[in-house]
Each structure stands twice: as structure tokens, then as C-alpha cells.
Predict the structure.
Amino acid sequence: MTATRRADVVRRVAQVRERAARVPPSGTGTLPFDISVSMAAVEASREDVPFDTVDPLFTAGFGLQSGD
């Protein structure tokens, strides 16, 4: 890759980053299951019972909500 090509790539990457920084994040998404706080909590929960985790770090339904 030539020096001119490298400079062009660096400039374009900088432009994309600058544009991305100006666009506010949007979107939605939620967890379909609980996230356990430790491996011990995973091992203690029953695999055939949904939402059986004791004191989960993140519960099912936790996530992003759009500001619209």
C-alpha cells in the first residue's frame, strides 16, 4: 500500500468516526433471559425452569429503550 493510499484510508476513517460521534445512539433491545452474577449462581439454578436465577445481575427484559 502506498503512502498516499494509507493517508487516504486514515483520513476516511477519521471522517467516519467524526460522523458517528455526531449521530446520537438509537435503537431498542432487551435481554430474553437473566444474566447471572457468577458461575456458582448458574450452577445452582435449574436448567429446565425459566428465570430461576437467584439475584441476577441483569433480569430478563433489561435493555435499551428508544427515546422516541
About this structure: The CA atoms of residues 43 and 53 lie 10 Å apart. The chain has two helices and two strands. The mean pLDDT is 87. The beta strands are 29-30, 63-64.
